[in-house]
Each structure stands twice: as C-alpha cells, then as structure tokens.
Design a protein that fits this description.
peptidoglycan synthesis, L,D-transpeptidase catalytic domain-like, hydrolase, three-stranded antiparallel beta sheet, 341 residues, cell shape, disordered C terminus, nine-stranded mixed beta sheet, L,D-transpeptidase family protein, glycosyltransferase, alpha+beta, single chain
Amino acid sequence: MNITTLTRHTARCAITLGLTALIATGAQAEEQDRQRGHFSLPESGNVIGKNITVTVQEGDTLIDLGRTHNVGYEAIRMANPDVSIWAPFEGTEVVIPDQHILPDTPREGIVINLSEMRLYYYSAPGVVETYPISVGRDGFATPVGVTRTTVKVKDPAWSPPSSMRREAAARGEPVPSVVPPGPDNPLGRHAILLGIPSYLIHGTNRPDGVGMRVSRGCIRMFPEDIESLYERVPSGTQVNIIDQPFKAGWASDGTLYAQSFPPLEENEGSFEPLLNAIETVARAFGDEKPPVDYARLRDLVEQPDGMIVSLLHTASEAPTPTEPSPEVESLFGGELELSTR
C-alpha cells in the first residue's frame, strides 16, 4: 500500500469513525433531550424507545446509571449480567434497556405490569410515559385488577400495619404506630391513593430498591417520577394492574418483537409459560400463520431478561413451516393449537 493509498484509507476510516461517534452521540443527546419517560405513540405497531449504550465513569454504579436513564434495578442488572452492580470498571460499556413493547391492554390511564415492574401512563393523545417501579414481594403480592386514583397526599405520614409492628416487635425492633413526614418515612414525599384499600403509588426513601420486589403490595417509584405524576395525574384516573411476563408486538418497520420477564413466584405454577408465549404471538398475527423462530421463542421464555428480541425468521435462515416446529409440538404431545382469541 503506497502513501497515497494509505492516506486515503486513513481518511476513510477517520470519516467512518467520526460518523459512528456522531450517530452514537446524537442518540444519547436525543435520549437526554426527551422529557424523562415520555414517548410518542407509534403510528403503527406497539414498540417504543430504543436501547442505548453508555460508558461507566469513575464512581458510577449500575444503580446510578439506571436511575439516570429511567431504568430499575432488575432491568439494568439483567441487561448487563457480566457487569458489577456496585463497582463496574471505569470505561465499561453498559446497555440501557430503554425499548419497550406496550402492554396488551387498552391505552387508557395508568397501566401497571407487575412482572415487568414498570408503569405506563397514557397522559395525552399520542403520548405514553413509562417508569420503573417496585411491586409487592412474595407473600405481599400486589393485586391484579382495575381501580382508580383517589386522594393525593403530599408529605404523608405512614402508619405501619399491625402485622408489621408485631413482626418488628418479635425481632426486638419495635416501630412507632405513626411515622411522620421526613427522611425516615418509606412513603417518600408524594403518595397517590388507589381505590383498593391500603394500596398506594408512592415515593420512597430508599430509591436503590426501585425495580425490585420489595414492597408490601404498594407501587414504589423514584422520588422524581412520583413527584411528576403527582402534579399531573387527575383524581379518578383509571389504574389497570396486570401481569404480563411475556409481551409480543410489531415495530413500525414490520418486525415482530418479544420481551420476556421472570414470572412472579406466586404465579409460576398457574400457567405454562411457553404455551402462554405462543398464544401471545398468535394473537399478534391474527389469522395468519406466523413464521416464528420457535427455538428462539423457547430460549426467550426459559431465559427471560427483559430485552427485546426479534422472533421472525430472516430471509437468510431456513424456510419456516406454517405449523409450529416439531420441538414445540412434542412439548405438548403434538396437539398444540395456536389460539387467536
């Protein structure tokens, strides 16, 4: 390679690297400029957002990066399984999972998907907001159902339930009957009461736990997120609490995507995860025969990590039969039907 050719090659590489950096910088700038948690509803399909990559700076934790980019504990952990939560190396690239399939429910009011540990708020025509949440831990499951917001309270006092006071007393750690507003109040500074007695959407004095199953049934949010909702959510807003550990949906470019989340412990024996996933995909196709990669679908269900994955065979892959693969059929004795309910 002579000097002239080398110079041209170097220039082309520099331009390519410059464009790549510009695109990456532009993507992060767009993510930063967009109001936190706000997305435009797609004209077609039901996939919003996109994943980005950020670089760990000195002193960062994955918890810090998750909170900055509107992601909860479990979501940031599952997206980066090989990165230390509390002490990632400086310079490490971290995936921010900010791409979501809208839940399969009417786009109205607030929708809370328990397995996903995420809240969706259809706040205005053409707009959806979404935020990470904590939900009830095993033994204190958040109930599924439709309710409404009622009273909004700023700087609420907290009355620990009698069962909690008894447990604490048994441990030799008695708690007061009422905890006044302040830094020790686990409700944080803002609370939105629900029509289900004793259940609230509220802040927290322990934001590191947002995105985990840690509450006694209430919905916890980052302080900045509940403050934003508190100011804008009208009393009487519908709240639809659902549990969809597997979601499928179309992107605007015609790609079928799916997301799979670890099911709630108390629901693990109540349904067959793979069959539920296949039925969900079938509903997305309607009466058409889905050209689905069933091996990929099974991996997604068996190893849920919340990341969006394409389920369609590509043109370069082997032709897909119009019926489920033998592997899937054998799982259910060859009698599987793709429901279109």
